[in-house]
Amino acid sequence: MSNPMGRPQISISAKDLLFRKLEPYLNAGFSLRKACREAKANRAWVYTLIQRDDTFADQITRAKQYLEVYFITFIAHLVSGYSFRILRGEQIKTEELDFLKWYAVHANHMSEEFGRRINPVPAIDPEMEIRKFKRIMAECKENPN
Fold first, then answer.
1. Residue 104 sits in which domain range?
2. pTM of the predicted structure, to 2 decimals
């Protein structure tokens, strides 16, 4: 079915393909603009689809929040472990506390709660940050308490 007044409507499969191109970049923490550039997707068309199609907009929002939800789950496990360590009289490692402070200051969605960015790093590599995150998570799994 086509629109007689302009561009034909986009099919569900075409939207799905577009989303699958953007998803890995959004999951890695890229902004929508950077994800469009990396996936070689037309940014204006993506924003138009977001405005027109609530389902597509929800998919994009979920993909953008993936890393945050994963991190919050990780933090919940850390805090749980920290509480047991504190109850036993043990101290939290300096690196773990420094990481939590760094995230609170630098994360986009945390800046309203904990303050504006201080000395923003212009070229943060999401892949490098994910590797750091996985390394810390692996260390915590090895030594949960």
1. 65-142
2. 0.53
